Amino acid sequence: MDSKALYAKALTLMPGGVNSPLRACRYVNAEPVFIDRAKGARMWDVEGREYIDYVLSWGPMILGHQDPAVTEAAHRAVDKGSSYGAPCLGEITLAEEISRLVPSMEMMRMVSSGTEATMSALRLARGFTGRSKFVKFIGNYHGHADSFLAAAGSAAATVPGTPGVPEEIVRHTLLAHYNDLDAVRAHFAASGSEIACVIVEPAAGNMGLVLPADGFLEGLRDLCTEHGALLIFDEVITGFRLAPGGAQERFGIKPDLTTLGKIIGGGFPVGCYGGSRTIMEHMAPVGGVFQAGTLSGNPVAMAAGLATLKRLGECDYPALEARTLAFARELAAIMESKGQAVTLNAIASAFTMYFSQGPVTNMIESGKCDSKAYATFWQQMLAQGIYLAPAGFECAFTSFAHTDEDFATTLDAARKVRF
Ligand SMILES: *Cc1c(COP(=O)(O)O)cnc(C)c1O
């Protein structure tokens, strides 16, 4: 069956034919292609068409697909049983490695998704401080737990309101625009003693890539310390992408709690949250804050995650950043030469080329991008074998498997786009 036939069948079995909304490709006025396999920087659809992949499963595949060391580690783990529901060595080795790379995470808990990690971190912050309110930034996405579904980014930004989330729940969610320290200051001035935490993507990746302005993260750190609130860095995207130690290493700010996901699973479902021993020991069975999981610390996922982090230790981050930035700048220049206004936000191995006059520093500015121009660009790139995120407000990711030839092929495709 081809993608069209599979999509028709999927529509009868899953709402919108998908298990996660953006995959339906509605924002680029297209139907999804169904993927059959992937290797390195490439994916192949069920009709055998080849694509250079800049979505990378929305971030996890920073080594490219089927990295031999990761695949082998996963195979070896499966051969020893796929789940025990009891402690295993892999949990310790992965936790030790994460703690070494991200020293603010003295202790941690493994869960099965980024959503679980942020949901648990919020519960812990509330349990630790005995406070209910928290500050979240408009356009930041922290997974789909109820409390976060107020002005969330990514696919949630396209859902009008959030039916199913009682107003009583998001009443505790205080909103501010990204990079707007004054708005956060105002929340603390009004209700500082009730605020459990501020949660932030230290570089935002779900309203397109938006970088923290100078002093923004430092300001959040100071406000939280001053008012006895916890600072949570949601590093589900930035962890092991902005630097081996994540955004906190890159920007030199120490959060109280960190959430991880995506890359630490090496393509398997893993999330993780952690911080100081003092805070983490509020979790059951030591403390009273509850969180559990049938598949938490799954041996196959732990093995794939550890192999990924080990491999990343041999990778040249600055070199990939330099190549990615040069590639992204050339891509933007090509679009400009066709009369498109574009704004490029880029860091490490992530970038967003917004089809709008910049700058883009928050959700309002991100929302101004020309979605029709992006849809035209996306459709013509896909037709030429370039797989980009099916929405103009998402990141493009590169991996250590992308070659200069892959970038050159992509730029050639971009030169042929007609608006
Ligand atoms: C993807 C993402 C999440 C949610 O992770 P899932 O594994 O999809 O549940 C949370 N926070 C950020 C910053 C993300 O990008």
TrEMBL record:
HAMAP family: HemL_aminotrans_3 (MF_00375). It is an enzyme of class 5 (isomerase). Coiled coil: none annotated. Homodimer. Belongs to the class-III pyridoxal-phosphate-dependent aminotransferase family. HemL subfamily. Keywords: Cytoplasm, Isomerase, Porphyrin biosynthesis, Pyridoxal phosphate. It catalyses: (S)-4-amino-5-oxopentanoate = 5-aminolevulinate. It is found in: Cytoplasm. This is Glutamate-1-semialdehyde 2,1-aminomutase. Its cofactor is pyridoxal 5'-phosphate. It comes from Pseudodesulfovibrio aespoeensis (strain ATCC 700646 / DSM 10631 / Aspo-2) (Desulfovibrio aespoeensis). The modification N6-(pyridoxal phosphate)lysine is found at residue 262. GO terms for cellular component: cytoplasm. Pathway: Porphyrin-containing compound metabolism; protoporphyrin-IX biosynthesis; 5-aminolevulinate from L-glutamyl-tRNA(Glu): step 2/2. Pfam families: Aminotran_3. PROSITE patterns: AA_TRANSFER_CLASS_3. The gene is hemL. Its EC number is 5.4.3.8.
